[in-house]
């Protein structure tokens, strides 16, 4: 039998495990975002202490990601004027539905809970707006109505 058709084990043909991608741009975080990073690091360090060598590999990869995010975190406060910005909670009307959206960092984002990353298209459309403004979005000139900014 030719060497080309021999395989020692199935692990040889698995896809390699790459590092977790770091989102481009600055790593802006809210105070809650910084706490989230610390919680993730603590949880991963506890998992790593209890893991065997094989299970430790993905935990170490995740830990490198979160330690990098901690080292590059720039804690940013919401704007002090009456405009929407990073850290703001904005009440909008979009497609006839009222939504209360928090503009947060990439790692804090949870679109299902209306916590969107500052780099998301919807957040970019809202940043800099004031209450009462109508904003263009997704090809419509009056798609977003800003109702309130907290």
UniProtKB/TrEMBL annotation:
Q: Which GO terms describe its molecular function?
A: DNA binding; RNA polymerase binding
GO biological process terms held by the UniProt record: DNA-templated transcription elongation; regulation of DNA-templated transcription elongation
Write down the superkingdom of origin: Bacteria
Quote the SUPFAM superfamilies the UniProt record gives.
FKBP-like
Q: Which residues form the Transcription elongation factor GreA/GreB C-terminal domain?
A: 80-148
Output the PANTHER family linked to this UniProt entry: TRANSCRIPTION ELONGATION FACTOR GREA (PTHR30437), TRANSCRIPTION ELONGATION FACTOR GREB (PTHR30437:SF6)
Instruction: Tell me what this protein is called.
Output: Transcription elongation GreA/GreB family factor
Question: Species name for this entry?
Answer: Sphingomonas jinjuensis
């Amino acid at each position: 039998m030719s060497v080309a058709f021999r395989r020692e084990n199935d692990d040889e043909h698995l896809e390699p495990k790459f590092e977790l991608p770091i989102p481009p741009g600055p790593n802006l975080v809210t105070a809650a975002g910084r706490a989230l990073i610390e919680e993730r690091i603590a949880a991963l360090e506890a998992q790593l202490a209890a893991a065997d060598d094989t299970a430790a590999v993905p935990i170490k990869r995740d830990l490198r990601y979160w330690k990098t995010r901690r080292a590059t975190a720039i804690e940013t406060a919401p704007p002090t004027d009456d405009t929407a910005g990073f850290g703001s909670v904005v009440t909008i009307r979009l497609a006839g539905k009222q939504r209360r959206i928090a503009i947060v960092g990439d790692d804090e984002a949870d679109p299902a809970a209306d916590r969107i990353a500052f780099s998301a298209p919807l957040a970019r459309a809202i940043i800099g707006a004031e209450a009462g403004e109508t904003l263009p979005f997704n090809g419509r000139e009056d798609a977003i109505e800003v109702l309130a900014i907290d």
